[in-house]
Amino acid sequence: MKELEIDERTIFKQEDLSHYISQFYANLYSSKPHFPGTAEAQRKSWESVPSQITKDMNAKMTQELTLEKVTEAITSLPKSKAPGHDGLSTKFFQGNVEETIPMLLLTFRAMLSQGLTLEFINKGMITLIPKFGDHSKLGNWRPITFLGSIYKILAKILARKIQVHLPFVIKPN
């Protein structure tokens, strides 16, 4: 994007573009939280909702990860997805399963059991993709985020852990 029209003026300088674009999407995708009632009323409200996850379900969802589960997640991801900021594609992990899975398993176990988060895993690279219309108007661009493959692998593992229990929590209608 070389220039951007804003309120009958045009921005050309890169730092001005970056600042305005950041502010535009921060405002667009954020909202002020609204928490009606008191903390006590909220607590009572949640207490009245019956728990749908049993202790057995919870035990299954919180079981320690295995090499098999990491392997299943890696092999199930599409090969042709764009890599994230780290440059590592899922195809890389699928082609180097024996070398990468033990490292990923140790990393994921530490993250889940000790609450550790490695900053580079949670990092994403945001870029703008043009939609239809006048590309000098910011509303005609769509932001997308390229997430790293390690993030995608962990997300797949966690999604599979809870997937079988979702029908007990989320009603079909």
What does the model show?
The protein has helices spanning 14-28, 39-47, 55-61, 67-76, 90-95, 97-114, 119-122, 149-163, 166-169, and strands at residues 4-6, 9-11, 124-130, 141-147. With 173 residues, it is mainly alpha-helical. The protein has 2 domains: 1-30, no CATH class; 52-173, no CATH class. Strands 1-2 form a two-stranded antiparallel sheet. Strands 3-4 form a two-stranded antiparallel sheet. β1 and β2 form a beta hairpin. The model has no long low-confidence stretch (mean pLDDT 84).
Going by helix content, strand content and strand pairing, the class is mainly alpha
| Proportion of residues in β-strands | 5-15%
- Strand order across the largest sheet: 1-2
What's the N-to-C terminus distance?
A: 43 Å
Radius of gyration: 22 Å
Summed up, what is this model?
The protein is mainly alpha-helical and about 170 residues long. It is built from nine helices and four strands, in the order ββαααααααββαα. The chain has helices at about 15-30, 40-45, 55-60, 65-75, 90-95, 95-115, 120, 150-165, 165-170, and strands spanning about 5, 10, 125-130, 140-145.
